[in-house]
Amino acid sequence: MAPGSVDINVLPGKEAGLFRQLVKQYETKQYKKGLKTADAILKRFSEHGETLAMKGLLQNCLGHKEVALDLVKRGVKNNLRSHVCWHVFGLIQQSDENFDEAMKCYKNALRIDRENLTILRDLSVLQIQMRDLPGFLETRQTLLELKATNRQNWLAFAVAHHLNGNHDVAVKVLDSYGATMDEEAAAHEPYETSEVLLYKAQILEEGGQAEEALAAIDAAVGKRLLKDRLGVLTGRARLLTKLGRTEEAEGVYWELLGINPENHQYHAGLRTALGLDTPDAQLTAEQRQRLSDIYARLQRKFPKSTAAKRIPLDFLTGEDFKTAIGAYVRPYLVRGVPSLFSDLRPLLADPAKSAALDALFEGLEASLVEGRGLPPLETASPASAMAPSTTGPPSPEDNPLVWVRLFRAQVANVAGRSREALAAVDACLADCPGLPDALTVRAGVLARAGNLAGAAEAADAARRADLADRFVNCAAVAAMFAAGRCADAEETAALFTREGEHTNNLYDMQATWYEVAAGRAYLARGDHGKALKRFLKVVSHFKEFRDDQFDFHNYCLRKHTLRAYMDLLRFEDELYSHPAYAEGAYGAIETYIQLHEAATKAAAAKAEAANGASAEDAKKARQKARKEEQRRAKEAAAAAAAEQEAAKKDGKPAAKGKKDPDPDGVQLAAAADPLGEAAALVQRLTQCAGDRLQTQALAAEVQLLRGRLLLALQAVQRAERLAGPGDASVHLLEAAAAFVAAASPAGAGHDAAAAVHALLSRRLSVSQAAESWREACAAEFPLSNLFSPSSLADGVAALSIK
Predict the structure, then answer these.
(1) Measured distance CA(223)–CA(246) in Å, rounded
(2) Where is composition skewed (Basic and acidic residues) in this entry (predicted)?
(3) What is the percent of the chain with per-residue pLDDT over 90, rounded to a whole number?
(4) CB atoms within 10 A of CB 726
(5) Which of 758, 691, 763 is nearest to 733 (CA)?
(6) Sorting pLDDT into bands at 50, 70 and 90, what band is 637?
(7) For residue 504, with 0-12 CB atoms within 10 Å meaning exposed, 13-18 middle and 19 or more buried, which class applies?
(8) What does the pLDDT look like over 121-173, one tens digit per residue?
(9) Which ranges in 432-469 belong to alpha helices (H)?
(10) ∠ at Cα 118 (114, 123), nearest 5°?
(11) What are the residues whose beta carbons fall under 8 Å from the beta carbon of 565, sequence distance 6 or more?
(12) Which helix (H) or strand (E) holds 756?
């Protein structure tokens, strides 16, 4: 700096005090006051980098993102050596979800101020969010070295080693942390101390040191330091089983069942401790008898336990099963419990048990029709406790015959016997007209038989029979969407939302089933914008679930809930494998494929029209298209105005929240690169849900359309492994991939084409009629010119050469 010159980045005393006030106003969320303070500084020092950056941060908090980014960039440009500017730039990038860029900004800030605790904490949170585990470990170690008196730094350092697989080091860190805690501190924070000790036992167990983990729990129990009784008991039972101390484990599981006899995990643990965890179909007669004796004891000890009566139905066979199932179903039939079929449906997978259920309910129906009531049980046991049956029920819904027939209808429906199922449901409705459960089952039978319109009518009748039942309402909405009645479905769903906020309310409730059903209905109608809007809402929900982690990285360390924190991280790692995400992503990918095919067809038609039309005709066509677009815009504006006016007249409250600028997904459907958008979704699906056949099938289709032959080949091979070589859809994919390779221009991706052709040679005969391939592929990809007859000739020639 030249002598006598002034450094614009150094503020005099008054403005420096204002800057400190500005930082405090940001921390206390006084954003508008902060802007006034920043303007007061910039009035004299208009190019002060740190003030510009802080003003940009305040603007970002107020939602003015473009202005904020410009200000922060100016601030960084004016003061490249300021850790404040780089830190603020990182915060702006993080708010825009540019996490990689944000981490670079934080690291630049740390090069200037290596010991800034705030920047280090922000960087560590971003690293664990992005699962940069080695970087997270390094950052937490730096924080611990800088401030070893902070307990959160010790716990975070242990977590970092645990996540990196360094179990021994993590235990040593927790031991060092425990050495700093005296008895008085432990007594002052008993629950925090208990959580840390149980977390240490978890690390030891996951590190393969079950004996040490059990010893740690027992030592803490002896000192009365553990407050989570269930956590202690489940941990001890699990560890004792791993160590082969089965008698002790059995005793702990009996204690756990005394606390909650309905917990199926405790039942499974007891079976494992007894060495009876063999699959039910592979149990020996002696093992079945042992289990029968155990559950007879459980039924005597816990006579009201449903699990103690239901679980034996899975392993009992022959006459024992018939006796047990007869006793089990009676209370449900007498009380009219609709969920009986859902409870017993897994038993239908066993042909012998399915036949026994058919015989049982056929006999029950015959007895009830003849007026003899339910037949007496062969044996009396606690499992058969039930209200006495009567032949003259006080109301139709209390008639066991209705529920027997309803169960038989559902069994017949699952077996594909639609006529029999429909007859049984109609008999139920004849005895009890308007029964919502029977109408819902009738809708399911009609839907399975392919009568979607009739299913929607039956589901709507069930809804009208009980207007206060949300489940029946949802079933009606789903049936209407399946039948293509989108407007009726949306109006029906709105009955259970806040008035005037139908769309926002369903989005806030994260009703993924609704969005997938609506997307499928709109896609079937060819309304790609609305379909894409619904499918991408599902994708955005899971993005929100992912971002919700930010709220817990520091919170869980502060509250010492480390076991729950580890469960959260592991859940988030498997988040995108959830079926709901897959369904939404599948729908979006299919929509993008259709958009690409429509654009390809439109471009071909336009080119054909351009070749045969004069300049004057082209001008008229453009003017016509422009007028049509203006007309649609006016109609949309008029409809919106009419809706607002109607709402005012009806006195309805205005919808809260930000108005959606693209409610019909028009902008989404106008994507410049639909296949690129689809490929991004495919990439995540193949990483997280690659074990699904539909994932690989869509991946192959997208990559074929993009011309990425090796990626398509990889997807086809994975699909073959998942479905087996006999799957027809996989053969179709193989034929499509081979034909694309054969139709590829000479010299373009020769190696890829050869690799795909090698797959063809292995799975399909080259002598197979190429015309049948073309027809199959053309049916699958109707708008792709790769499968036209002209391309076929080139493909056959290429195949004969190869």
Answers:
(1) 25
(2) 616-635, 645-662
(3) 65
(4) 8
(5) 763
(6) low
(7) middle
(8) 999 999 999 999 999 999 999 999 999 989 999 999 999 999 999 999 999 99
(9) 436-448, 452-465
(10) 75
(11) 159, 552, 556, 557
(12) helix 750-763
- Are 562 and 155 in contact, with CB atoms under 8 Å apart? yes
pLDDT tens track for 718-731: 888 888 766 766 76
* Closest C-alpha to 441, from 340, 563, 572: 340
Q: Are 741 and 757 in contact (CB under 8 A)?
A: yes
Cβ atoms 266, 256 nearer than 8 A: yes
Contacts of 769 (CB under 8 A, 6+ apart): none
Find, among 538, 504, 541, 501, the residue nearest to 519 by Cα: 538
Give the count of alpha carbons within 13 A of 194, CB side only: 17
Residues 489-513: tens digit of each pLDDT: 999 999 988 776 677 788 888 899 9
Q: How many CA atoms are closer than 13 Å to the CA of 389, on its beta-carbon side?
A: 24
> In angstroms, rounded to a whole number, what is the distance separating the alpha carbons of residues 154 and 176?
9
The C-alpha angle with vertex 702 and arms to 701 and 704, in degrees rounded to 5, equals 65
CA 173 from centroid of its chain's CA atoms: 35
Output the pLDDT for position 36.
93
3-class DSSP state for residue 658? coil
Q: How far is Cα of residue 319 from the mean position of the Cα atoms in its chain?
A: 43
684 and 576 in contact (C-beta within 8 Å)? yes
Ramachandran angles phi, psi of 456, nearest 5°: -65, -40
Q: What is the model's pLDDT at position 462?
A: 95
CA torsion, points 750, 751, 754, 756, in degrees to nearest 10? -110
Counting Cα atoms < 13 Å in the Cβ hemisphere of 189 gives: 14
Which one, of 490, 546, 551, lies nearest residue 518 by Cα? 490
- From the CB of residue 260, how many other CB atoms can be counted at a distance below 10 Å? 13
At 533, the amino acid letter reads K
> What span, in angstroms and rounded, lies between the C-alpha atoms of 743 and 794?
6
Region 165-188: mean pLDDT is: 86
Q: Is the pLDDT of residue 573 over 60?
A: yes
- What's the rounded Cα separation, in Å, for the pair 712 and 532? 24
CB 763 within 8 A of CB 779: no
Two structure tokens written together for 248: 């002790």
Is residue 534 packed enough to be buried (19+ CB in 10 Å), middle (13-18) or exposed (0-12)? Answer: buried
Region of 519 on the Ramachandran plot (φ > 0 left; ψ -120 to 50 alpha; else beta):
alpha
Scored b (16 or more CB within 10 A) or e, 438-463 reads bbbbbbbbbbebebbebbbbbbbbbb
Instruction: Please enumerate in sequence order all residues whose Cβ is within 8 A of that of 797, keeping only pairs 6 or more positions apart, or say none.
Output: none
**Residue 683 above 90 pLDDT?**
yes
DSSP alpha helix (H) spans, 561-578? 562-573
User: Rg of the Cα trace of the chain?
Assistant: 34
Tell me which residue has tokens 């050495």. 179
Q: How far is C-alpha 133 from the chain's CA centre?
A: 24
Is residue 578 within 8 Å of 542, Cβ to Cβ?
Answer: yes
pLDDT digits (tens, 9 = 90+) for 29-63: 999 999 999 999 999 898 899 999 999 999 999 99
Q: Nearest 10 degrees: CA dihedral of 292, 293, 294, 295? A: 50
Q: Which pLDDT value is given to residue 393?
A: 47
Between CA 780 and CA 13 the distance in angstroms is 74
Of 416, 476, 404, give the one whose Cα is nearest residue 445.
Answer: 416
Q: Which amino acid is at 507?
A: Y
Signed CA dihedral, 493, 499, 503, 504: sign only: negative
CB atoms within 10 A of CB 379: 10
With contact defined as beta carbons under 8 Å apart, do 473 and 493 qualify?
Answer: yes
Q: Which residues of 225-242 are buried (b: 16+ CB within 10 A; e: fewer)?
A: bbeeeebbbbbbbbbbbb
Q: Which two tokens stand for residue 239?
A: 């560890």
